[in-house]
Write a structure and sequence with these properties.
Elements (H helix, E strand, L loop, with lengths): L21 E12 L2 H4 L8 E2 L2 E2 H14 L1 H4 L10 E8 L4 E12 L4 H19 L7 E11 L5 E2 L5
Antiparallel strand pairs: 1-5, 1-6, 2-3, 4-5, 6-7
Length: 159
């Protein structure tokens, strides 16, 4: 059932040598609840703090995180990423949404890269806004969609 253990139940990287090369795409999402002290700083485009433009910095951090995923998660294969897109938008007076889409052509998927990207982007928002209050919450991190490989996935109820 689990792929990262060998026949003796020891941790093991998955051998992808026999897999076919396909285009692999993954889309992950996380949400953050921000206190009014942070949301009130939103100017319609970004939140700017003494550390700089928050959303733009988080996009760069999320992109870098996607590229570094194999350094952080022991059994992730190092991948050549062809595209990483991070989008951050304000949902309402309390919440922002961070979407990350990652693409490669290879023998293994990019789900972990997309999930890592959105989490590090959220942590960057937290870091850059914490001087305005620590009442932020990172929540609902999940895979929205993946394609390529043996089977595709699309989370129900997500447009």
């Amino acid at each position: 059932m689990f792929t990262h253990v060998d026949k003796n139940n020891r941790p093991s990287m998955v051998d992808v040598g026999e897999k076919s090369v396909t285009t692999r795409v993954a889309w992950a999402r996380t949400k953050m609840k921000l206190p009014p002290s942070v949301m009130n700083a939103f100017n319609g485009v970004d939140i700017t703090t003494k550390k700089g433009p928050v959303f733009n910095t988080a996009i760069v951090a999320g992109t870098l995180a996607a590229k570094k995923t194999s350094d952080l998660i022991p059994f992730c294969h190092p991948l050549f990423l062809e595209d990483v897109k991070i989008e951050i938008k304000v949902l309402d007076s309390e919440f922002i949404q961070i979407d990350g889409k990652v693409k490669t052509t290879g023998k293994t998927g990019v789900e972990m890269e997309a999930l890592t990207a959105v989490q590090v982007a959220a942590l960057t928002v937290y870091d850059m806004c914490k001087s305005a209050g620590h009442g932020m919450e990172i929540s609902e991190c999940y895979l929205v969609e993946k394609s390529g490989g043996k089977k595709d996935y699309h989370r129900e109820g997500i447009v």
